[in-house]
Design brief:
The protein is α/β, with parallel strands linked by helices. The chain has 12 helices and 8 strands. It has one domain: TIM Barrel (Alpha-Beta Barrel), CATH 3.20.20.70. It is globular.
């Protein structure tokens, strides 16, 4: 592996948006607010809390404005919203004083982009060019995400050059962070290592973020490979909530608590309180009325207890 491993990383919590959106039962706004407030006490610097998609497309997120208005997190926690298109941006800017960052996105796969947002990649990118400049003109941070960056369930392996060309186009619009999404859990550690080595070399000065799903059980291994290649920014979801609605069967993001546990045991700093994240994930279990799939919910954080050895 590469010797570029950072000794500190940033982790953005995406559970309140990416995680909740896949839940079949409507989560009451008050419960969303309570869970976000709990996460806000865990040391996060950035939390994705809402999306301005059409309510009929993702009803679960229809209360985004109410959530933004009611949450109470420390002042140094930046709140992020997802913006699907210019119409969504128009709606989001009505609440400009409630959030700090906006995410725009595209799929690297033509087929996935059509099924996800009913647009060709070229049309989505044309709109993204406009939105990126509008967002930065509002003194908001603009983050771009490229979905299916490691593979598409409809088209198979997505060429690395195609992904990085999209990333370079985003960078030209002034975007300072680009996330690469393993949207349906098709990445593997060997490819992830090569991917981030190439991306870091090709996109100097841009923060590159890894977003892995655990659909096939390789999420943490992929995060480790990205870390070894020099990636210092990650997204994850407490409780391993989430997944991609296109196609069915694409289960959740890697669990934040499992990711933090792994990094801490490796000596990589995150600035996060693992016990508080686990508490929030356990509270989410109660809200949802079912067991979640992260390992740390069950096992808890590792506690090293030295064993006294008798002196001969």
């Amino acid at each position: 592996m590469s010797t570029r491993r950072p000794d500190r990383v940033s982790i953005r919590e995406v559970g309140p948006r990416d995680g909740f959106q896949n839940e079949p039962e409507t989560i009451p706004t008050a419960d969303k607010v309570r869970l976000i407030n709990a996460l806000g006490q865990a040391g996060y610097r950035r939390i994705e809390v809402a999306s301005f998609v059409r309510p009929d497309v993702i009803p679960q997120l229809a209360d985004g404005a109410e959530v933004l208005s009611q949450i109470d997190v420390p002042a140094d926690v930046a709140l992020m919203v997802l913006i699907p298109n210019s119409r969504g941006l128009d709606n989001a800017l009505k609440y400009r004083d409630k959030f700090h960052e906006a995410t725009i996105f595209v799929s690297a796969s033509e087929t996935h982009n059509l099924r996800n947002v009913n647009r060709r990649v070229s049309d989505t990118m044309a709109d993204n060019d406009v939105m990126a400049r509008r967002i930065t003109s509002e003194n908001l941070s603009c983050v771009a995400v490229i979905a299916t960056a490691f593979g598409c369930p409809f088209e198979g392996r997505v060429p690395l050059d195609r992904v990085l060309e999209l990333a370079e186009r985003f960078a030209e619009t002034g975007v300072t962070e680009i996330g690469f999404g393993d949207t349906t859990g098709m990445a593997n550690p060997a490819y992830v290592a090569d991917f981030f080595t190439a991306a870091i070399d090709r996109l100097p000065g841009v923060e590159l973020t890894a977003h892995f799903h655990n659909t096939r059980g390789q999420g943490l291994a992929n995060a480790y490979a990205a870390l070894e290649a020099g990636c210092a920014s990650f997204e994850s979801s407490f409780g391993e909530l989430g997944g991609c609605p296109v196609p069915a069967g694409s289960t959740g993001n890697i669990a934040t608590e499992d990711l933090v546990s792994m990094f801490h045991e490796m000596g990589v700093e995150t600035g996060l309180s693992l016990p508080k994240i686990i508490d929030a994930a356990r509270a989410a279990q109660t809200v949802l009325g079912r067991k979640l799939t992260s390992h740390s919910i069950i096992a808890g954080p590792i506690n090293w207890h030295p064993v006294a050895v008798a002196t001969p």
